[in-house]
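ugh ok so i messed up the first submission bc i forgot one of the chains. this is the corrected input, ALL of the components this time, i swear. 227 residues overall. if the numbers dont match what u have on ur side tell me asap before i send this to the collaborators (the ones from the other lab, u know who)
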Amino acid sequence: QQKVQQSPESLSVPEGGMASLNCTSSDRNFQYFWWYRQHSGEGPKALMSIFSDGDKKEGRFTAHLNKASLHVSLHIRDSQPSDSALYFCAASERSNYAQGLTFGLGTRVSVFP
Amino acid sequence: GPKVLQIPSHQIIDMGQMVTLNCDPVSNHLYFYWYKQILGQQMEFLVNFYNGKVMEKSKLFKDQFSVERPDGSYFTLKIQPTALEDSAVYFCASSSGLGGREQYFGPGTRLTVL
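and heres the new structure output, hopefully the right one now
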């Protein structure tokens, strides 16, 4: 079983609409959660991190973490065509050295005019 | 923003040959990583590297794999000998610190083993 599971696999959103992505971890050792975005032909780029319970907002992006259920979500407000990309949830354990990230399979977001 | 470069972007080699993938990390970063992504599958951590040493490696980091960063030059992943199952996109990443610091990823090297 994958340690980081994402849903849905794909999502179509009208321009200006809201996109909601979900991520659930099965490993209670994970303390750090990241959302990464990858455009075609590029490497993943970090959108935001969330380490504490509750909401974290950065511009049009809002992440929510519930540590009890190990559920993380990402909401994209006022979606733009440039938001069309593959979105990854990634997690790592709290540690005293830089750890490798565990990624989900990703959610492909398509924003249509 | 900070950029990680990877050379080459594509590499095609015959099974059993050696291949070296090169990564130019962000200039002031100290921690370096390799990830492997097979088409349609999740990106998986291979290894991380700090101060000239492997800090952590996954079960995917086979004995045929090695990493180094001689004299602060490229951070490299060497596979010798290659196998068909090594065909994948390999991503290099770097970060400035521990735990929750952002990892910056390169664009990847697509390796095809024939």
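quick check: Chain A has a mean pLDDT of 93. that seems consistent at least. The longest strand of chain A covers residues 30-38.
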